[in-house]
Amino acid sequence: MRKRLLPFLAAVFFPFLAYSQESKPIIRFSPFFTKGIGIEETRFIESLIQSYLSDFGDVVNFFDSSLPQDFSGTGALPDTWTKAPDYVLTGSIYLEPDGRIFTLEVHNTVSGDTLSSTTVHRTASDLALKARSLVENVFSSPVMAAKASPEAKEAPAERPEPITETAVIGTWRGESGIEMIRLQQGGRGVAFFSSGAQMNLSYTIENNTLKVRQNSPNTERYYYPLPYGVAKQLSAEAGPMVWELYLYSGGAHLKGVKISAEAKVEGNLLVEINPEASRDTKWTRSMR
Known about the structure:
By secondary structure, this protein is α+β, with helices and mostly antiparallel strands. It has two domains: 2-154, Rossmann fold (3-Layer(aba) Sandwich), CATH 3.40.50.10070; 165-285, Lipocalin, CATH 2.40.128. It has six helices and 14 strands. The chain has helices at 2-13, 39-53, 79-82, 124-140, 165-168, 228-237; strands at 26-29, 33-35, 58-61, 87-96, 99-108, 114-121, 170-173, 178-184, 188-193, 198-206, 209-214, 242-248, 253-266, 269-285. The strands form two sheets. The chain has an eight-stranded antiparallel beta barrel with strand order 7-8-9-10-11-12-13-14. Helix 1 (2-13) packs parallel to helix 2 (39-53). It is globular, with a radius of gyration of 21 Å.
């Protein structure tokens, strides 16, 4: 079934390749790290991601260092073969009991920023169907905004500080729709929503990244002020909220991304759900 499904999906997705005559940033694509999935599926997902990357720039494969086939040995080589990339993208797909753990990581070589997004997919088809939105979410982040000017290279990018449990324990504010978040010892926490709802949290620290995850069952009160019917439907279909955060400003700020369901609403009707939308977020330590 899979062998028939993958070519079908390829026929559906590849017509969306976008090309532009104007100068585009150069994106270097590195092979994905995989565990538990076959070569055919790996190559298909890699090709799919590359096709969507072409909407954002000129893609160069890290493992393809040969000259263009039509290069005669005279004249200038294309910029993609002579200039350093503006972005470097890599990823991984690990097959776990919960499904396919898919991670995209993009490094902005101009600013020095790196953005990582991790999602879980039950099947290869589910991953393929959401691939475009995953790429769009990563590149629509201000961290990955269009190429910076040459002058921007002179200003050093803000670097995350070493993060420990002691550094994150306490009260934080600034998350939209949440009055405050309290992180406690032992990887536990609680979020107090503007609607009056509370959400139990768990957190871990890995690779200098604070990863916070929703532990409580969903409720429509987590999606206030959406209309009640929309919030109720969204809470029934949404997965757990996840935050990936980095420490800045001497421990005063946590900045990163929030991954959660996002609804498109027309009037009081739910039109579309993006179950794994990624958006920038910033928490500020509260002294109260």
